[in-house]
Design goal:
Blueprint lengths: L4 E10 L3 H5 L5 E11 L4 E5 L6 H8 L7 E6 L2 E2 L5 H10 E4 L3 H4 L6 H11 L5 H14 L16 H13 L5 E5 L7 H18 L2 E6 L2 H7 L2 E6 L2 E7 H6 L4 H9 L39 H5 L4 E5 L2 E4 L7
Parallel strand pairs: 3-8, 3-9, 6-7, 7-8
Antiparallel strand pairs: 1-2, 1-4, 4-5, 9-10, 10-12, 11-12
Helix pairs in contact: 5-7, 6-7, 7-8
Length: 323
């Protein structure tokens, strides 16, 4: 099956200013040599600790920030080569749900004005038809016509996130990046919003890239999952495989640290030593080697390639043999 989205060797580096370079600051790689593919109509999960590059990768895919190197293909076309007109059309097909719904909505605009922007820019509807389509979307996300004239501060956090979801759907996208869509909501509301998002995904058949640090969320929502650590993909597999038999030491430790009552999980791994930023990763080796219990000299010298270590299970680890 041809993937709807494909990322090849994508890298994003941030170079410090001259003043910071003189002070000894080095170039930072937020995303390093990431390759993955997302099939149409599926939910793809991106999980990892805070600061591992998940959000940066999502924004690179949408070209909200420009990559340092690498390629992004959407429906067989290279996004990194799009002209201004092609990029405008891509914006319609690929939308984003931001983490903070309050900052994602203009506090000076009513709900009708915020949700109507997409219709106006792409000339999809106007007048009474525009209003009717907005009301229909509001009803589908659990609100109604009474919300049209209200402002963002008049809604709860869960309601604002529903508004952001509705706004993303106004232009009928084929692909949506959901960046930690429930992390700022109360636990009692999170399940409602996630179930709504899953229901809408099935109804409208869009492809969803779900970014989260919560392993329970990606387990509930996703078909395939990629685990990131310091800008690199450590493991990529189908959900059932990843949770039942994780191969990478980081994935094992990540799953062991999360509370879970599912019986198919393998025996818990030992807790990792150190913190995410406690030691700088080696320049030419595996970024996980300073904390990895399996690390040897080879891991410090040579970066591991993401290779298929088991059927449909890709792992970046030199210590795990390739069949």
């Amino acid at each position: 099956m041809t993937p709807l989205l494909e990322v090849r060797h994508l890298t994003k580096q941030y170079r410090p200013s001259t003043l910071w370079r003189l002070a000894g600051a080095k170039t930072t790689s937020a995303v390093q040599d990431v390759s993955l593919a997302v099939e149409a109509g599926t939910v793809f999960g991106l999980v990892g600790e805070s600061g591992c590059g998940k959000t940066t990768l999502g924004r690179l895919i949408l070209r909200l920030i420009e990559p340092t190197s690498g390629q992004i293909f959407f429906d067989g076309r290279e996004v990194t080569r799009f002209s201004r007109a092609e990029l405008l059309e891509y914006r319609r097909q690929a939308q984003i749900i931001f983490q903070n719904p309050f900052s994602a909505l203009n506090p000076r605009q009513t709900v009708e004005a915020s949700l109507g922007i997409g219709y106006d820019v792409y000339k999809l509807a106007k007048g009474a038809q525009r209003r009717d389509r907005i009301v229909a979307l509001l009803e589908q996300v659990g609100l109604g016509a009474e919300a049209l004239s209200r402002y963002p501060h008049q809604f709860s956090g869960g309601q604002r996130q529903r508004l952001v979801i509705a706004r993303a759907l106004t232009v009928e996208p084929r692909f949506i990046v959901a960046d930690e869509p429930v992390s700022m909501l109360d636990v009692s509301i999170q399940a409602q919003v996630l179930n709504l998002l899953r229901e809408l995904q099935k109804r409208y058949h869009f492809t969803l890239l779900l970014i989260s640090h919560d392993l329970r969320v990606v387990r509930h929502m996703c078909d395939r999952i990629a685990v990131m650590y310091l800008g690199r993909v450590m493991e990529l597999a189908r959900k059932q495989t990843l949770y039942a038999a994780p191969l990478h030491p980081y994935t094992q430790a990540l799953l062991a640290a999360a509370p879970d009552t599912h019986s198919e999980r393998s025996a818990g791994a030992a807790a990792l030593a150190g913190e995410l930023w406690e030691k700088s990763p080696p320049e030419n080796g595996c970024v996980f080697s300073p904390r990895c219990p399996l690390a040897v000299d080879l891991c410090v010298r040579t970066p591991p390639l993401l290779a298929e270590k088991a059927p449909e299970q890709w792992v970046a680890c030199s210590r795990i043999p390739t069949p």
